[in-house]
Every structure is written in C-alpha cells, then in structure tokens.
C-alpha cells in the first residue's frame, strides 16, 4: 500500500490529478480530500479505513508545511510496510493566481477574491517537502507535467515516475525556506520586481 501525499498551493493542480487517479483506478486508490469531507479528522478517518481495506490513499490537500505532512506519515506508520510517496506540484504563484481567477467551481472557495486571499495566506506559510521528513519517494511536477484531464496512461506515467525515482536519502541539517522567502529572494534577484500580491510583499 501507498500513502501518496500531494503538496502544493491552491490552484497548483493537485485535485485534478487526485480525482483522475481515483477515477481511473478505483480498486487501487482512494482520494482523501478535505474540501469534500470538511475536516482533517475526517480525512484521517477515511485514510485509515481505506488502508485497512487494502487500498492505497491519495491525500488531496495543500499540506503546506512539515507539521501538516507529518500527520499522514504517522498514519502510514500505523500500517507496516506502507510506502510514503510525495508529489510536489511546483506551480509558480503567478500561475496559481491566474488559474484561481478563472476557476468557477470549488467546494469551499466560491469567489476569485477569496481564492486569491487564501493563496496569498498559504504562500506565506508554505515550505517545500524535504528529505528529512521521512518520505520514501518524492517527485516534483511543473505545470508542463500536469493536465486538466488525465488519461489513465497519464496517471500511470506519473506514478511510474515516482516509483522509479531515487529513494529519498535523509539529510541531517535541513535548511527550511518558505515559499514567501523563495519568492522574495527571486524578486530581489530580479531587481526588486515582484509579480505577486503587493499587499503581502510579493
């Protein structure tokens, strides 16, 4: 069994992938989505129930920092032999913002203004997954690697990419850089030009 933790900002493409994964492989995968279920506790319950039934689970939420991702790692450890995979949707802030302005349907975020506010807040606290957290495999997907409508073969290709990736080697002295710090550094390197939300310092 696999606990597949999706990581990425709002609008990065996680749910399109997770929905297609469950749709194409319903007897192997269960999508555990907090927007649909309403709370992390219910997501945890569904994940445990699915693992008991022999399914692999895809945790479809932002999982923006180490503490949030740790919940799913701990659940995986409750089921010996379960692999812990991560797919990081490394979608630039500006691309997420553009997608959110065009998105018309979401279970909990009903307006573009609210979506951009949530994106800005999450970006401030976001930290990319790192080897020391305890994953077995991790891959990053750029926007060019993702789709709105995935075929079964597309999903299989991405899963094979994770499966064949180098095993994660833990590191002893991690350097933690938030998404906001990363964007600020890029802004300074570009001469102070920022393309993000000016009210949150880019």
TrEMBL record:
<protein>
    <submittedName>
        <fullName>AAA domain-containing protein</fullName>
    </submittedName>
</protein>
<dbReference type="GO" id="GO:0046404">
    <property type="term" value="F:ATP-dependent polydeoxyribonucleotide 5'-hydroxyl-kinase activity"/>
</dbReference>
<dbReference type="Pfam" id="PF13671">
    <property type="entry name" value="AAA_33"/>
</dbReference>
<feature type="region of interest" description="Disordered">
    <location>
        <begin position="179"/>
        <end position="202"/>
    </location>
</feature>
<dbReference type="GO" id="GO:0046403">
    <property type="term" value="F:polynucleotide 3'-phosphatase activity"/>
</dbReference>
<dbReference type="InterPro" id="IPR027417">
    <property type="entry name" value="P-loop_NTPase"/>
</dbReference>
<dbReference type="GO" id="GO:0006281">
    <property type="term" value="P:DNA repair"/>
</dbReference>
<feature type="compositionally biased region" description="Polar residues">
    <location>
        <begin position="188"/>
        <end position="202"/>
    </location>
</feature>
<dbReference type="GO" id="GO:0003690">
    <property type="term" value="F:double-stranded DNA binding"/>
</dbReference>
